[in-house]
């Protein structure tokens, strides 16, 4: 279940103000001063911790650390990688123990929780950080109570990754960006029928929220959470249409069912050459550039439903407000937000940098993949759905989406159950 | 409740050492009627089933991803992928975690040997008011599931400033009621004449303990050491929360973070998990008799 | 702990009083036990009446956590799962009795070799072996389903389907607890007096008869002890489940154990107050079970 990257332009969320509205993101408890203070000098000696969740991006992050080390030879940065599945569990334990990393990745669904409890450093006075260098909606996403509390790292939208060779073997033309749902289903069916004996699927199924369910629900005219953040869209007829579409492919044996994809995650199937099509984000590039299928694959624009629907999100770099190494952390964070770091990230093929004007570094790094289409998709993409306490209903999704998409039980009935429970969580927010 | 349980343990441990040659003779008599090949067949097949997961693990660790996921299974890798082992060191700070695990284990073993021997000696050989009550209280924590302690222990370690340190991961496991109980049983079984002699020589209790009794406690100490080492090396839940940074945590936690990455590299995961288990397996094969005796003392962890 | 007066211990031949020495010997252990065990027990009881903020900080909420326990449908399922797991693992004891009696025959050749085979799982890291077993139980390329396919059975999703996942975890639990059982029973076997076998032989009892009329009854204290620790360990099911199921498993809601639920409430959902209640429930169940065992033991355990 991937709510790994989240929205862009969710100003509504950021401005909503948590139940524990504090003035600014870093004025909460703890002994440390909320002030950012001076940045470390170039000859400073210190060591700081840095935590991320994507192992595929670790090499790029190491390159950035090395480059930072050239400017600040005395500051050691120790990077820790937690699997995304347990990242926010770990971060919560660290926050409870007042032991947050000095600098760490954060995403949209979790940003407000941490900001509203004063755990994220207010970055208004961070030297070298100019919000104008990033897309407005990403800055808005990571602003709490009018103060920026994280620096946008990257942004992602969803496209259709495909494996040329597998499609060719099954006699299917590569997607040209105009595919409808039906064409996607037909292509998947043909590949599955032709290549199933080699254990190859047309599409790898799954219940990825950001990469699969959200965009399809939006394309069918549905929604996930209403604009006033009060109602769940899981029982909306449009959302149900998307579920029926996914369930139909599983029931007809075109796509693997949910129990299968729990053991064999869609991205594993695709990167092992066992699935021909996969809807996913540009972040996959980092993984796929090292996979056995890298010569056989490319990306195309997402499939199309009744209306356009795509989801946009980006990771943020945040700093602990209670850290005891703030001068060194400021220096590192400032570097992470710089154009230089953005270009390193892009050139390593890790992610599409958020820093305006550095997209080309990412495109040039992976000439084999058409990555511009993900930037084009941003024009019509909608923000990743969030509310004040997103992670609460994300857990409900984790629990019930497998049953909706994979059965057993009636799609509409289980979806209604999810919507009702989610409504309850949303009601607790206000 | 704990008293009775303790008696049961005592009874079991007493039996470990009781080796009746007559019993052996009698059993060899019964054995004579049993077809020998059948025994060997059962033990061999059963034994291979028991170690099969390890063999399969080694096989997978030397295979390619495609071989691991192939149907039907590929029995031996076409060419052994030794590179999966160095790859582990690139994906997780394995050496750091290995050293951490070793240091935590050493700290816990030394700490327990010393503290449990001291306390066990006091409970066995000294007289003081409230002894039985204190001993019963100490034993009572054996009955309490670990989860009860977990959250508050986290708070204690946090307040001591020991999160993400070797000391913090090791600290709670240094104090063991079970180790104390084992050492007490051991000292109870030692003859009083040894101490009498030392006392007549003018030794104080510390000298008596350290020079006479402690050096004579080899088997009991090795049992405590082995049980502690096993529990410490393999522990998951406590280091999972007490040490949340890759370079500061233990192997067990490191393994769980290999799982749940966006892409799963099965052969590397198998190589990592095999290397994580290897030290204890070697220890077991080398010190087989001691380990079996240690384990016979109890199934209770730590 | 004041030192003992001479009058209080007239029976003892040895030193009449040890002065402050007991404090010196016991002090370090008792301080540690107080800090890391006694205080946490108290703190957990206190926590059970509170609700935690997202990042610490407690507020009193009376009996609400206890009320929640009664309504929580996950709890009853977790209790059931934990019981099923424990029962299946307990089924390993009869198997262990048989293997132990085979392994402990006098003059058995290759005994040391067999011991290595049978005891190796006892020293293996649960997390590490769980990852291996997860592969062995894979629906598509796992060995178990491959073996089943040889006899024409289409194997189930062992790791991701309700009930099957519990069964798979229990099988692994049984496998990993077998060595310890064999070791403890082996110790018990060596303690059975030889005369009893001789007497049984004189009565004309065959091997099988001796096994059931001498070995098993005299092994009952060991079996009793073993069943208690196996059950206690069974109720603590966590590592195997955590590593075999992984995160975001659709079968998790139907497979989780009490301890997993505790972990999930405490560290994933951040309901530490409620988690404390679950911890107390685990204590109550283990306590009740052990008490019951001791009650029942009179009926079947033979002490010489």
Considering the chains and any ligands shown, give keywords for the structure.
heterotrimer; B: 302 residues; mainly alpha; MetI-like fold; 2 domains; disordered N terminus; C: 304 residues; two-stranded antiparallel ribbon; 14 helices; 2% strand; globular; MetI-like_sf (chain B)
Any overview of this molecule?
The complex is a heterotrimer of chains A (430), B (302) and C (304). In chain A, 42% of the residues lie in helices and 11% in strands. Chain A has 430 residues and is of the alpha/beta class. Chain A folds into two domains: 11-156 and 313-375, D-Maltodextrin-Binding Protein, domain 2, CATH 3.40.190.10; 158-309 and 389-429, D-Maltodextrin-Binding Protein, domain 2. In chain A, the strands form four sheets. A five-stranded mixed sheet of chain A has the order 2-1-3-11-6. Chain A has a three-stranded antiparallel sheet with strand order 8-7-9. A two-stranded antiparallel sheet of chain A has the order 4-5. Chain B has 302 residues and is an all-alpha fold. Chain B is 74% helix and 0% strand. Chain B has helices at residues 2-17, 21-33, 36-61, 65-68, 84-91, 94-125, 131-140, 146-159, 166-174, 177-188, 193-200, 205-213, 218-234, 237-242, 251-258, 266-286, 288-296. The radius of gyration of chain B is 24 Å and the shape is globular. Helices cover 69% and strands 2% of the residues of chain C. In chain C, helix 2 (64-71) crosses helix 14 (272-300) and helix 3 packs across helix 8 (164-190). Chain C is globular. Classes of the chains: A alpha/beta (430), B mainly alpha (302), C mainly alpha (304). At the B-C interface, helix 1, helix 2, helix 3, helix 6 and helix 7 of B face helix 1, helix 4, helix 5, helix 6 and helix 8 of C. Chain B: It comes from Brachybacterium halotolerans.
* Low-pLDDT residue intervals, each spanning 5 or more residues of chain B: 1-32
Beta-sheet strand percentage of chain A?
5-15%
**Per CATH, which architecture of the largest domain in chain A?**
3-Layer(aba) Sandwich
* Strand content bin of chain B: under 5%
Number of domains of chain A: 2
Q: What fraction, in percent, of the residue positions of chain A are helical?
A: 40-55%
Unreliable sequence segments of chain A: 1-23
Which structural class fits the helix and strand makeup of chain A?
Answer: alpha/beta
Q: How many domains make up the 3D coordinates of chain B?
A: 2
Write down the CATH topology of the largest domain in chain A: D-Maltodextrin-Binding Protein, domain 2
| Principal-axes shape call of chain A | globular
Number of helices of chain B: 17
For the secondary structure, the number of strands of chain A is 12
- End-to-end distance of chain B, in Å? 19 Å
InterPro entries (chain A): Bact_solute-bd_prot1 (IPR050490), SBP (IPR006059), TAT_signal (IPR006311)
Keywords (chain A): Signal, Transport
Organism (chain A): Brachybacterium halotolerans
Main location (chain A): other
């Amino acid at each position: 279940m991937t709510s790994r990257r989240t929205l862009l332009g969710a100003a509504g969320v950021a401005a909503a103000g948590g139940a524990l509205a504090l003035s600014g993101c870093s004025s909460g408890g703890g002994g440390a001063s909320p002030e950012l203070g001076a940045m470390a000098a170039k000859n400073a000696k210190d060591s700081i911790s840095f935590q991320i969740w994507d192992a595929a991006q670790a090499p790029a992050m190491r390159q950035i650390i090395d480059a930072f080390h050239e400017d600040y030879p005395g500051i050691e940065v120790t990077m820790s990688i937690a699997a995304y599945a347990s990242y926010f569990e770990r971060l919560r334990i660290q926050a409870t123990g007042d032991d947050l990393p000095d600098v760490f990745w954060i995403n949209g669904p979790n940003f407000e929780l941490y900001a509203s409890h004063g755990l994220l450093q207010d970055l208004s006075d961070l030297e070298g950080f100019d919000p104008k260098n990033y897309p407005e909606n990403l800055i808005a996403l990571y602003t709490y109570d009018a103060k920026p509390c994280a620096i946008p790292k990257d942004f992602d939208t969803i496209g259709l990754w495909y494996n040329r060779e597998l499609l060719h073997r099954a006699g299917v033309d590569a997607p040209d960006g105009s595919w409808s749902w039906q064409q996607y289903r037909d292509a998947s069916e043909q590949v599955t029928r032709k290549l199933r004996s080699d254990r190859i699927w047309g599409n790898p199924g799954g219940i990825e929220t950001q990469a699969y369910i959200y965009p399809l629900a939006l394309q069918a005219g549905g929604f996930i959470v209403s604009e006033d953040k009060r109602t769940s869209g899981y029982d909306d007829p449009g959302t149900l249409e998307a579920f029926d579409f996914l369930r139909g492919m599983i029931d007809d044996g075109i796509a693997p069912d949910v129990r299968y994809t729990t053991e064999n995650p869609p991205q594993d199937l695709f990167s092992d050459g066992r699935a021909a099509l996969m809807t996913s984000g540009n972040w996959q590039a980092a993984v796929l550039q090292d996979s056995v299928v890298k010569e056989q694959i490319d990306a195309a624009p997402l499939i199309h439903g009744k209306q356009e629907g795509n989801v946009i999100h980006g990771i943020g770099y945040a700093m602990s407000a209670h850290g005891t190494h703030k001068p060194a952390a400021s220096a590192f964070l400032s570097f992470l937000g710089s154009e230089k770091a953005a270009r390193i990230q892009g050139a390593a093929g890790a992610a599409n940098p958020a820093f305006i004007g550095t997209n080309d570094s990412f495109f040039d790094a992976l000439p084999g993949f058409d990555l511009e289409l993900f930037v084009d998709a941003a024009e019509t993409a909608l923000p990743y759905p969030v509310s004040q306490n997103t992670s609460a209903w994300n857990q409900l999704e984790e629990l019930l989406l497998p049953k909706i998409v994979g059965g057993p039980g009636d799609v509409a009935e289980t979806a209604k159950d999810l919507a009702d429970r989610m409504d309850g969580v949303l009601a607790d927010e206000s | 409740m704990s008293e009775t349980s303790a008696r049961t343990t005592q009874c079991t441990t007493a039996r470990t050492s009781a080796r009746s040659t007559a019993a052996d003779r009698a059993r060899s008599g019964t054995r004579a009627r049993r077809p020998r090949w059948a025994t060997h067949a059962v033990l061999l097949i059963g034994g291979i089933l028991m170690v099969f997961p390890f063999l399969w693990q080694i096989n997978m660790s030397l295979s390619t991803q495609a071989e691991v996921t192939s149907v039907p299974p590929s029995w031996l890798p076409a060419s052994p992928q030794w590179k999966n082992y160095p790859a582990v060191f690139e994906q997780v700070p394995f050496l750091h975690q290995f050293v951490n695990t070793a240091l935590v284990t050493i700290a816990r073993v030394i700490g327990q040997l010393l503290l449990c021997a001291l306390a066990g000696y006091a409970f066995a050989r000294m007289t003081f008011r409230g002894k039985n009550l204190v001993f019963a209280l100490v034993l009572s924590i054996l009955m309490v599931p670990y989860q009860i302690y977990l959250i508050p222990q986290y708070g204690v370690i946090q307040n001591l400033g020991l999160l993400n340190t070797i000391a913090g991961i090791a600290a709670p496991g240094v104090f063991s009621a079970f180790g104390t109980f084992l050492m007490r049983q051991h000292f109870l079984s030692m003859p009083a004449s040894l101490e009498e002699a030392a006392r007549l020589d003018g030794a104080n209790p510390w000298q008596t303990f350290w020079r006479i009794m402690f050096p004579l406690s080899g088997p009991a100490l090795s049992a405590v050491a082995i049980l502690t080492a096993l529990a410490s090396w393999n522990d998951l839940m406590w280091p999972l929360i007490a040490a949340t940074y890759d370079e500061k945590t233990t192997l067990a936690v490191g393994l769980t973070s290999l799982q749940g990455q966006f892409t799963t590299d099965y052969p590397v995961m198998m190589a990592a998990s095999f290397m994580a288990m290897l030290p204890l397996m070697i220890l077991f094969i080398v010190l087989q008799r001691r380990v079996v005796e240690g384990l016979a003392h109890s199934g209770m962890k730590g | 702990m004041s030192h003992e007066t001479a009058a209080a211990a007239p029976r003892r031949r040895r030193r009449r009083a040890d002065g402050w020495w007991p404090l010196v010997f016991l002090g370090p252990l008792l301080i540690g036990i107080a800090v890391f065990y006694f205080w946490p027990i108290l703190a957990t009881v206190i926590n059970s009446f509170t609700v935690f903020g997202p990042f610490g900080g407690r507020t009193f909420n009376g009996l609400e956590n206890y009320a929640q326990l009664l309504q929580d449908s996950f709890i009853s399922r977790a209790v059931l799962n934990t019981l099923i797991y424990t029962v299946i693992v307990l089924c390993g004891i009869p198997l262990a009795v048989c293997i132990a009696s085979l392994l402990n025959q006098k003059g058995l050749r290759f005994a040391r070799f067999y011991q290595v085979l049978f005891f190796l799982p006892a020293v293996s890291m649960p997390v590490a072996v769980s990852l291996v077993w997860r592969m062995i139980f894979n629906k598509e390329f796992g060995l178990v389903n491959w073996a089943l396919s040889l006899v024409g059975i289409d194997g189930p999703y062992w790791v991701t389907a309700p009930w099957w996942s519990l069964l798979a975890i229990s099988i692994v639990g049984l496998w990993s607890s077998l060595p310890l059982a064999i070791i403890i029973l082996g110790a018990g076997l060596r303690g059975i007096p030889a005369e009893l076998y001789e007497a049984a032989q004189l009565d004309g009892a065959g091997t099988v008869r001796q096994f059931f009329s001498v070995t098993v009854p005299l092994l009952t204290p060991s079996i009793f002890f073993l069943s208690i620790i196996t059950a206690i360990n069974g109720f603590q099911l966590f590592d195997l489940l955590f590593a075999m199921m992984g995160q975001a498993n659709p079968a998790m809601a139907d497979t989780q154990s009490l301890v997993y639920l505790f972990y999930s409430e405490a560290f994933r959902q951040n309901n530490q107050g409620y988690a404390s209640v679950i911890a107390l429930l685990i204590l109550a169940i283990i306590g009740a079970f052990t008490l019951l065992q001791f009650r029942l033991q009179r009926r079947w355990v033979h002490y010489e």
